Amino acid sequence: MRLTIAIATLALIATPVLAQTAPAPKRGATLRDANMTRLGTIDRINSDGSVQIIFNSKFVTIPASSLVVAPDAAVSTSLTKSEVAKLH
Length: 88
Prior knowledge:
This protein is an alpha+beta fold. The protein has one domain: Alpha-Beta Complex (Photosynthetic Reaction Center, Chain H, domain 2). The protein has two helices and six strands; from the N terminus they run H-E-E-E-E-E-E-H. The longest helix has 18 residues, at 2-19. The termini are far apart.
């Protein structure tokens, strides 16, 4: 009986931790580079988590692995503006 109560207690404690996920970028949010320079507005969110923006009049896909979404929904990438320019 004590083992059952202990397991149930651990499950209740662990559930909120497991339920927390990183916020996802939203369409229409402004994307900023590593220096906080504005790159563009997120136009598309792909199924793999990458996003597309229009940069220098062309669609550019920013890899999901480089994205950071702050709790206030601000989106930035670890890439610099010159690195994004090379993604064309």
